[in-house]
Automatic annotation (TrEMBL):
Protein name: Uncharacterized protein
Taxonomy, superkingdom: Eukaryota
Amino acid sequence: MDPASQALAQHLPLNVCRTYAALADHSDGRQYLTPLEEKAFVQHILQTATLRFPLRIKDIPALAFSIARQRSATKVIKPLNKN
């Protein structure tokens, strides 16, 4: 068995939670977009899909990062909430 398969077959340590709530709590601090930006981005994805030009899944994180990068440096953004 190769090393990658051995690593996947091992159990997680006892102190690591595998519940959906634990994963959601972990992802709260890693959100790129504000709720308004996320809503507009979803609308853009759906609109391009209806025009028969769907976005590839692998392009979505890069586009989200480029949206977040274009924010104004002087405008204060409120803390992110759950999306």
